[in-house]
Amino acid sequence: MKKIIFLIIPIFILASCSGGDDSNNSGDDYNRTELLMNWADNLIIPRYNDYQSKVNALHTNTTTFTSNPDQTNLDALRTSWLEAYKAYQYVGAFNIGKAEEINLNSATNVYPTNVVGIESNITNGGYNFALLSQYDKQGFPAIDYLINGLANNDTEIIDFYVSNTNATGYKQYLTDLSSQLKTNIDLIITDWNTSYRNAFINSNGNSVSSSVNKTVNNFVKHYEKDIRAGKIGIPAGVYSNGTVYPEKVEGLYKGDISKILLNESVKAAQDFFNGKHFNSNIIGISLKSYLDYLNTVRNGQNLSDIINNQFSTINDTNATLNDSFANQVNTNNTAMLSSFDALQQNVVYFKLDMMQALNITVDYVDADGD
Asked: Which positions ≥6 away from 41 have C-beta within 8 Å?
């Protein structure tokens, strides 16, 4: 009996040391380490750096405006707000590392914003943006309200920061909103630059918690829930038996940027799928190249080509939309539904075809019946 135990122990030790959740054991011999390196160094970190730069500009212009509320400074603030909002569309899919820890997406882009709650915060003070109850009172939608939605014209909006009985409170809240955006992205950049990059790349296996699996799940979830459903489906009444909600569009108070933000998010998704380096024409290792390596086909055609062709269809369909989605759902909601259907088709290709080919299990709850 002792001999049997003696023989089993080394075998057990060898087996336990030969792999694990983070081993490169995807079952297909694809070099996931190189994939993760391209994602980290050429897509994720550069996108975060760009977003940080745009948020810094937003914070600077917020300080300038609250110090001297006038039309020139309001215009500059609005421009930097939109640029930062557009840059955010390129990082919203990366709910990993510090971004997941601080709930970046919830703290940045919950819309419609809670106007009653914002006004209560301004009146009473003492708010804590780290609380779950404060997610709909901060981020880009809250700033949208404070620089575009307080009144019907710019003179009256500026008066909130000049002659209103609580002008100091409005200035402070606007400053705190931009400061919170800056704090959050600074934490994420520091994390990637100090330790998370290496941890992200080293987690190159095929477990549920490995970097490829988590990144792909977050990418698909963001595309499905935040882009397809959030930007189009909910305001267009897809989930409410045809009852439209123009007040639930992104960029509500600015009024003419819903389409801009949608187009940026779709471009961000396609660029990530193809491994396109940020602000470059260089194409690196990617989900597309992974699928091609596996010779993944659907109806005799490369799945990667089908997905990219569908992105072209999405862009063509979205091009017909009004700049204001609030106006679009009220005047011709059929066009919104067409955009939803175009986006939905890639949900099918991502979840049913791509993830199955990559041997990645969907790890988020799907309540849409897709």
From this structure: 197
